[in-house]
Amino acid sequence: xxxxxxxxxxxxxxxxxxxxxxxxxxxxxxxxxxxxxxxxxxxxxxxxxxxxxxxxxxxxxxxxxxxxxxxxxxxxxxxxxxxxxxxxxxxxxxxxxxxxxxxxxxxxxxxxxxxxxxx
Length: 119
Description:
Helix content: 10-25%
């Protein structure tokens, strides 16, 4: 079976996904990440999103849960999903915006298109 993450791009907005993160240091120097803080995902297997979390995330994904209630499971899956191998959350220290980047060298480098969710 093909790896569902093979076709993913290298960067997408963290505002589109819900992950807890913890700091592991600031990427500065030869890695090209000046002003970027590379974080580790703190994945909680027991995390259950609140109704407010689900509603807010559905809005970010432009998923109308009133019209399409079957999308709720997809939204919840996005909030509970682990990052694929090689991906890490990164915080831009200048703008405070977070995004996800693929640090695995066998995957494409650099952002090319937005990704909203894989459930």
